[in-house]
Amino acid sequence: MRNSRITGVGRYLPEKIVTNDDLAKMMDTSDEWIRERSGIEERRFFELGKDTTANMGTRAALMALENAGLQPDDVDFIVFATLSPDYDFPGSGVLVQRELGIREVGALDVRTQCTGFVYGISIADQFIKTGMYDTVLVIGSEIHSSGLDMTTRGRGVSVLFGDGAGAAVLQASEEKGIMSSHLHSEGKYAEELAVLDVGSSRSVPRVKPEMIEEGTIFPVMNGNFVFKHASTRFPQAVMEALNHNGYKPEDLNLLIPHQANLRISQMVQKQLNLRDDQVFNNIMKYGNTTAASIPIAMSEAWEQGKIKEGDLVCLAAFGSGFTWGSVLMRW
C-alpha cells in the first residue's frame, strides 16, 4: 500500500524575545500571573520589515527540505495553514511558492486555526496515498503580535500568543508512515474564540473607526469555556487515533500536542497516564503559535533526538471553531 511519511522538519522563530516582564510594562500583569495560568515564560514577536507570515513559512520550509535531502523543485504541492495571512487574499501558500522559486505547483491555504497543521498533514497524506502527489510541503506560520490588544483590556488573550513558523515534508513511502488522521469540528461554539468584527463580510464597511476605538478588532476568548473543552477533546483525539490503530497510551514514544496551554498539556498527560518523556512541550519559550506550534515542536523534538526512526508519534490539536484532531504515525 502507498503511504506517506514525514522525511524532513524545520522551523523559524523571529529573533525578538518578549518576556513576561516585558508584557508587564505594557499592561497590568506579571510573570507569576502568566506562568500560573499558562506556563509561558517568553515568546517571539516578528520584526517589522523583515518577517512576514509567508517568508517565515518559507524559511521553515527550506530547513525542512534540507533535512529531507530535497530541493524546492522536488515539491509537488504546498499546504499552508495560518489564521494570520499576509493579505486577506490571495493566500500565503502562493507567496511561498513564489519565494521558493518553484514551478507552478498548487498551493492550498487551510483556515482551521490551532488545528491547521493537523488538518494540513491529513490533506497531504490523502493526496499522497491516492497517488496524486509524491512530495507535499505542509507549513504552519503565524504572526499574532500585530493583531493583539497589548493593554490591560486584552491581557487575557494577548499574553498567550507568539509568532513563528514550522514545516514538514511528506513523501510517498512503502513504509508505515502516517497510519491515520482524525478531524472534527463543533461550530456551535465558533464565537467562543474568534475575531468577530474586523474584516467581516457581515459588516458594511468591513472596517469602521469604532471597531478600533472599542477594541472589537481584537480576538475574544471565553477562557474557562475553551479550557474545559480543550481538556476534554485533546485526550479524546489521542485515544481515537490509538484505538483506531490498535495501540494504547503506553505504546506511544511521543505525543506532540498543540502548544495552547501548559496546564492543558499536563492535564492530558495525567489523564492518559503518560510519562514526562512521552510528551513534548515548548510553550514555555514560544507561547501559543497556533498553526505553527506543532511543527515547531516536532522540529525541536527531532533535533533533540526525542523522535527516532520507528517511533510511534501522535500529533493532537484543539482550537477555534471549535476544531480538533489527531494524527498517528510511525516515524
In short:
With 331 residues, the protein is α/β, with parallel strands linked by helices. It has helices at residues 20-24, 31-38, 53-68, 92-100, 116-129, 155-158, 209-214, 223-244, 262-272, 283-286, 293-303; strands spanning 3-12, 16-19, 42-45, 77-81, 106-110, 135-142, 164-173, 177-185, 193-194, 220-221, 254-257, 312-319, 323-330.
Helices and strands in order, then pairings?
Blueprint: E1 3-12, E2 16-19, H1 20-24, H2 31-38, E3 42-45, H3 53-68, E4 77-81, H4 92-100, E5 106-110, H5 116-129, E6 135-142, H6 155-158, E7 164-173, E8 177-185, E9 193-194, H7 209-214, E10 220-221, H8 223-244, E11 254-257, H9 262-272, H10 283-286, H11 293-303, E12 312-319, E13 323-330
Parallel strand pairs: 4-5, 4-6, 11-12
Antiparallel strand pairs: 1-7, 2-3, 6-7, 8-13, 9-10, 12-13
Helix pairs in contact: 3-4, 8-9
Supply Rg: 19 Å
Percent in helix: 25-40%
Any idea what the shape is? globular
User: How many strands in all?
Assistant: 13
Order of helices and strands: EEHHEHEHEHEHEEEHEHEHHHEE
Please state roughly what percent of the residues sit in beta strands, choosing from under 5%, 5-15%, 15-25%, 25-35%, 35-45% or over 45%. 15-25%
What class do helices, strands and sheet pairing give? alpha/beta
Round the mean pLDDT to the nearest integer and report it. 97
How many strands, what sense, and barrel or not for the largest sheet?
5 strands, mixed
What is the terminal-to-terminal distance? 17 Å
Q: What is the topology, as strand order, of the major beta sheet?
A: 1-7-6-4-5
Sequence stretches where pLDDT stays below 50 over 5 or more residues: none
Counting H and I runs of at least 4 residues, what is the number of helices? 11
